[in-house]
């Protein structure tokens, strides 16, 4: 029987589906990643692996996995995977596009609203018993309607976010490597990265992490933004030079940031962002609705089954 390794606790029905035809080895912990040495040991003779974005699928792992045919990554992003090396070892990589688009766009919207209206700050004040009563500018935030929103990365999540903006009477700008039909259909205006930064009241990063986009949001980028603007990130932490962002928020160069992702996850209390009032921080829950996570798992399982049964992957990373 072919062996499949699953590196985190997933929905039991998905495991049962695989167990009909395969031997499944499961790291049965929901919160903790499979330790690296165990990952290497278990994948050494595996034919398929269902990985999380916290698992590094690199040359060391791939050259050690002599039977490996497919890695199904439970994420749309795949910056945890060395694609070049996978190609050399003839391992098919799949991801989970589309099924998480709407859920992730909803979270991006949640971040924008939460930051603009100071929701977490206001909630913290109330919970700490420090609310002294109504006053005209108490916790006064920023409107979204009538503003300019800039989307860096007009892929399907960026577009789903833009669609949600239509009820807010905003002007929408976007920047991609090239002009996108999707952007035009949504009435969004293509601008340079520099113009996106300087003209937007809210800048959303929804791009994939690549060599080109890594650390794109640095000191210079934040300097270009309005001092009233917010930066929102649902892409990857490494899109940002975190020390530059901390400085930009601390010194009032930008109004605030709302982040779902960090360069080294998980972050703890000692992270410089944690005690800053103008930071809205979430623990990488972009696609975390129960339905969407189930759909993502199902897609991973189907990708593995297709490949190991001699078919074509449903959502290969090309
Ligand atoms: C992804 O799919 O890349 C997300 O970050 C997971 O939540």
Automatic annotation (TrEMBL):
Keywords, sorted A to Z: Oxidoreductase
GO CC terms in record: cytosol
Database matches in InterPro entries: D-isomer_2-hydroxyacid_DH (IPR050223), D-isomer_2_OHA_DH_cat_dom (IPR006139), D-isomer_DH_CS (IPR029753), D-isomer_DH_CS1 (IPR029752), D-isomer_DH_NAD-bd (IPR006140), NAD(P)-bd_dom_sf (IPR036291)
Top-level EC class: oxidoreductase
CDD domains in the cross-refs: GDH
Protein name: D-lactate dehydrogenase
Higher taxonomy: Bacteria, Bacillati, Bacillota, Bacilli, Bacillales
Domain spans labelled D-isomer specific 2-hydroxyacid dehydrogenase NAD-binding: 109-286
Signal sequence coordinates: none
Family (UniProt): Belongs to the D-isomer specific 2-hydroxyacid dehydrogenase family.
Molecular-function GO terms, alphabetical: D-lactate dehydrogenase (NAD+) activity; glyoxylate reductase (NADPH) activity; hydroxypyruvate reductase [NAD(P)H] activity; NAD binding
Organism of origin: Salinicoccus cyprini
A Pfam family of this chain: 2-Hacid_dh_C
Domain of life of the organism encoding this protein: Bacteria
């Amino acid at each position: 029987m072919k062996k499949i390794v699953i590196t985190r606790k997933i929905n039991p029905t998905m495991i049962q589906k695989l167990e009909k035809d395969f031997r499944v080895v499961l790291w049965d912990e929901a919160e903790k990643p499979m330790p690296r040495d165990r990952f290497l040991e278990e994948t050494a003779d595996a034919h398929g692996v269902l990985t999380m974005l916290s698992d590094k699928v690199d040359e060391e792992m791939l050259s050690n996995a002599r039977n490996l045919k497919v890695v199904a990554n439970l994420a749309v992003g795949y910056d945890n995977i060395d694609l070049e090396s996978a190609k050399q070892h003839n391992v098919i990589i799949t991801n989970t596009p589309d099924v998480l688009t709407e859920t992730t766009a909803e979270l991006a919207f949640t971040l924008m609203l939460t930051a603009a209206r100071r929701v977490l700050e206001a909630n913290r004040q109330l919970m700490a018993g420090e609310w002294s009563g109504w006053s005209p500018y108490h916790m006064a935030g920023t409107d979204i309607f009538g503003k300019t929103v800039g989307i860096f990365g007009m892929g399907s999540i960026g577009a789903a976010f833009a669609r949600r903006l239509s009820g807010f009477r905003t002007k929408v700008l976007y920047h991609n490597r090239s002009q996108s039909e999707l952007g035009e259909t949504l009435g969004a205006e293509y601008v340079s990265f520099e113009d996106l930064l300087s003209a937007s009241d809210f800048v959303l990063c929804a791009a994939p992490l690549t060599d080109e986009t890594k650390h794109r949001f640095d000191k210079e980028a934040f300097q270009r933004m309005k001092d009233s603007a917010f930066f929102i990130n649902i892409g990857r932490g490494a899109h940002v030079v975190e020390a530059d962002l901390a400085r930009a928020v601390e010194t009032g160069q930008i109004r605030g940031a709302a982040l779902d992702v960090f360069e080294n996850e998980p972050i703890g209390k000692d992270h410089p962002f944690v005690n800053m009032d103008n930071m809205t921080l979430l623990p990488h829950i972009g696609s975390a609705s129960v339905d969407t996570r189930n759909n993502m798992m199902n897609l991973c399982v189907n990708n593995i089954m297709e490949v190991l049964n001699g078919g074509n992957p449903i959502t290969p990373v090309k």
